[in-house]
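Continuing the series of single-chain predictions for the mutant panel. This is the parent chain; the variants come on the following pages.
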Amino acid sequence: ESRATAAGACGSATTPTERASTAAAPTTTRRPAMPSTVDVTAILQRMTPTGNRPPAVTVLGLLAYLIALVELMSGIASVILLLRPGQAQLLFDRPVSDWYWVITASLSAALFVAYIWLARGILAGADHAWPVVNVLAVVNLAFGALYLFQGTGWANVALSALVLVLNNLRGVRVWYGEPR
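Parent structure:
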């Protein structure tokens, strides 16, 4: 038996409310379940606007948020087209399977979350942001080159080249930590 049960059974002078209020008071602070390897304080300090953030970093962060917004709109459009049968689901004058819209919406949702995470990392100066931005820009540059004659390729190539140039400026590399 526990002490509270034994005390209650013996006719203790404390009331149930007093026992509950003393039992509910924490005596120690909770420790996190898993120790963090990320210095969150340093990242949050860099996220506060101090005027030290290079303008190119701000542009990169805004571009990442803009891409996230485009991915969100693409996902919403895919869900709408999934739910509308008939002519609305024609792509290049051919009917499209519902799976196409499901996969497109799922990928757009994943990219939306990824770009929000990346934009926050860019503005915070997180170490992971620099290589991820470069990899995504090179991949987008390659896909843009494949779509040059379909209309969207030129914009994709231009934006990807701009992102690569901005992300590799010396001040931006220093923002992410040590120069690379």
